Amino acid sequence: MIDLADTVDLDVFRRYAGISLPRHVSYPMPSWWKDVDGDEASSMLRESDEQDPGFDLSLYLHIPFCETLCKFCACNRVIQRHDATGAVEVTNSYVSALKRDIRSLAGSIDNKRSMRQVHYGGGSPTYLSDEQLREIHTTLLESFALAPDAEVAMEVDPRNLDADRLQALHDTGIKRLSMGIQDFDEQVQKHIRRVQPFDLVSGIVSHARDVGFESINFDLIYGMPYQSPDTIRDVVDKTIELAPDRIAYYHYAQIPERIATQRGMDYTKLPDSETKLEMFLIGLERFEAAGYAFIGLDHFAKPDEGLSKALDDGSLQRNFQGMTTGGGLRLLGVGASAISQLPDVGFLQHFKDHAEYAACIDANRSPVQRGMRFSFDDRVRQAVLSDLYCTARLQRATIESRFDIDVADYFSREMTILRDLERDGLVTIDDNGDVEVTCPLGRVLIRNVAAVFDAYLDPEAYRLGDAVRFSANA
User: Residue 469: what pLDDT?
Assistant: First the structure.
């Protein structure tokens, strides 16, 4: 058992916990993005392409289809049974549009620049057939210069896998699997409509190792209905038994006003904030004891895994895929809702509706719906937030050298607020002005620390001597 009172200052935790704050998978957050037409999108891509020195490439491909609906899910997805009328036509149409999107993107940039990272996300990419996935990947190989050592990853549903399917994915060129596990408890699985017994997952992991995948990732979620410290302890121990190379240990966000599927969750069985704190600490204690490195806000990785190496060499980043390698790459998105992150330029996002996206591609129109150009201030704050989330520290000299600013002057208001957080034990600030987030309290409340640097949140809502209480202006 973990004695919370001996681990963190519960009075401080209670004052800060439960405040609605961004997770900062992007900065600025998408709520601030504006409509972007095709001309502006092309201009931003061209501007990014002409940067000197240029950026190597990372590609995200979004496959929105799923066979069944999971109650917790906040992803952009289309629920469609394989045997439903028109299912084949819908997926064939989408795959066709995706291939044209890949070719069009390659023709609009310097496609000879090395592509060092590819991520198939969803939805569930394994909803598509082996042949459809091969067609997409072949189009990618024909259109871009994929580096021999590129990290090629795919989100997979264990329920859609067997030994033959795994071999086909590996033969296609997939090197890392990201498995949506969430929980191993039968009651929890039934409630969230994601039933995949431990023995099934164990068998898939064993087959994947035999086939030769370089890395296996588990996505776990704590804080859902019917979860308790005891069930989470069992989930963590079973995960350690299966020994994935990296682990995403996400805190469940209950936002039914925005995600209709979550309205089916049993609110009466949601754990309270202190129980969720204990769940987080169980994962932190047990994963570290098993040899995993604690990375960023909510990830763990084996010391020799790419995520740990990225933390060591400074290439770790936080984006829409969570904590990832490839910092310094230009992220290009294809598919419905896909986002391109163009360093020092801005964000671009495609239409979310898969049919509207495909219609744009069929009509030779830009599939970009919205985005945002970065200001100088956006870029500075992006760097600060990245440092905080990825490394749990802010090194003054690094920011000053990169942007030619005086951190103490540029962030005078923010540093005053941080002194208050320092008194509460969330951060420490040394004589050089470097900031380090404490562990475990500061890491648990790191969004409260990061929110101090978010210029799009209302600073008037902050009260010295109390919790960081921000509210969005939008």
Answer: 43
Residues 280, 286, 291, 294: what is their CA dihedral angle, to the nearest 10 degrees?
A: 10
Residue 382's CATH number: 1.10.10.920
In a domain, 156, yes or no: yes
Structure tokens, 99: 């291939």
Residue 442 and residue 181: Cα distance in Å, rounded? Answer: 27
215 sits in which H/E element: strand 215-222
User: Do 364 and 92 form a contact (C-beta atoms < 8 A)?
Assistant: no
Distance CA 63, CA 80 (A): 12
Would you say residue 362 lies in a domain? Answer: no
Domain-embedded: residue 453:
yes
Q: Count Cβ atoms below 10 Å from residue 349 Cβ, excluding itself.
A: 24
Residues 288, 152 share a domain: yes
Domain span holding position 236: 26-340
Asked whether residue 18 is assigned to any structural domain, the reply reads no
Query: What is the bridge-based pairing of β-strands 215-222 and 176-182?
Result: parallel
Q: Are residues 412 and 324 in the same domain?
A: no
Look at residue 216 in the predicted model and tell me its pLDDT: 97
pLDDT along the chain (474 residues), means of 10: 82 86 90 95 94 89 92 83 83 96 95 96 94 98 97 95 96 96 95 94 97 96 95 97 97 78 85 93 96 94 95 90 88 97 96 96 96 98 95 95 97 94 96 95 93 84 41 32
> What is the helix (H) or strand (E) element at residue 377, kind and residue range?
helix 376-391
Here the tokens at position 453 are 């640097």
User: Same domain, yes or no, for 328 and 385?
Assistant: no
Alpha helices in 50-162 (DSSP H): 87-108, 130-143
Residue 464, CA distances (Å) to 10, 254, 419, 458 in order: 19, 28, 10, 14
Q: What is the pLDDT of residue 459?
A: 61
Q: Token pair of 34, please? A: 């504006």
pTM over 0.85: yes
Same domain? For 335 and 223 the reply is yes
The CA distances from residue 194 to 17, 129, 158, 189, in Å, are 28, 21, 10, 5
| Contact status, residue 280 vs residue 336, Cβ threshold 8 Å | no
48 and 133 share one domain:
yes
Total structural domains in the chain? Answer: 2
For residues 262 and 387, membership in a common domain is answered with no
pLDDT at 254: 75
* Last residue in a domain, options 340, 363, 394: 340
pLDDT for res 241? 98
Measured CA distances, 422 to 54, 287, 396 (Å) = 39, 27, 16
Is the separation of the CB atoms in 133 and 172 below 8 Å?
Answer: yes
